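Entry 14: structure prediction run for Carbohydrate ABC transporter ATP-binding protein, CUT1 family. Input pasted below.
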Amino acid sequence: MNMHAPSVRIRDLDLQFGDVKVLKSLSLDIRQGEFLVLLGSSGCGKSTLLNCIAGLLEVTDGQIFIQDQNVTWKEPSERGIGMVFQSYALYPQMTVEGNLSFGLKNARVPKAEIAARVARAAEILQIEPLLKRKPGALSGGQRQRVAIGRALVRDVDVFLFDEPLSNLDAKLRADLRVELKRLHQQLKNTMIYVTHDQVEAMTLADRIAIMRGGVIMQLGTPDEIYNRPQNRYVADFIGSPSMNFIDGRFDGETFVAGDLAIPMQGYRFSSESARAGQATIGIRPEHVVTGELVERAPVQTTVTVNLVEPTGPDTLVYADLAGGPLRIRMDGHAQVRAGDVLPIGFEPSRASLFDAETEERI
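Run finished. Output tokens:
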């Protein structure tokens, strides 16, 4: 195996259902041992892409390579993949041990090898005490661990996860997220993970591919996606609450919206010749500073508070700026009420500037 070659290569992939194009000339390289997350809202094509990689859907055009082998027309069982679905899909009449070993028995793997693989998977996933139980006696989190274990025993190069945590409650999701990250660090296999949950994506991924309408809008590390979104869609999709957007005009040096003038010194432009014209500036709620920090901010102004939303660790403040809504994330202990005049500031280098027409990053 060439460790420098991509683990999974997708070239010009098209998938069409009737007249509807679900995937459009999609190309993607997934590195050896990488945890790649396919992220997007419902209907963006992320699960469809995963099912194409798995061989569960027949592509209309394009090619898929796994470990340098062209698997475009191969059966799922011939692709060297293990898949974990949203539904646990366990056999209710079999014990956990039976569920883990079933596929291996069908593949005529020797008994000693089956026992060794099941024991190893059970140890990694900490389900050894559950091996004699049936799925009906397990919690949701335990069942999902068994479903992951069933993929694990196959000893494959690539693991595919299709929203595996979405059926679990919030606390279990958070716990299993940590376990999945630990599992990847331990195994170092290539993992491709589909989710609509941006927290899952940001915490698990080495890189994130944000999808919309069957194409990849941006591929990058969580840090790149969060701090340098390549277009307005990505900027709006990532972050909770989402980014503030103010429409105005950029003259090549300064962004102006109403009475607000923001000098863009220190901002990293996407190209050397930043185009002047109608533009939108994006500022994350957590990048708006208040209190003592305002004095040190390059841009300072005041806003009138419309609404305050305490969430425990944070207080979300809603106001208006330059004719548009502004959300500000403050500390949970912040003493602020509707009607207050609040001094605020921010650092233009942390903002994002988008062309109003193309919505691409300037």
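Notes: Residues 170-187 form the longest helix (18 residues). Will compare against the previous run tomorrow.
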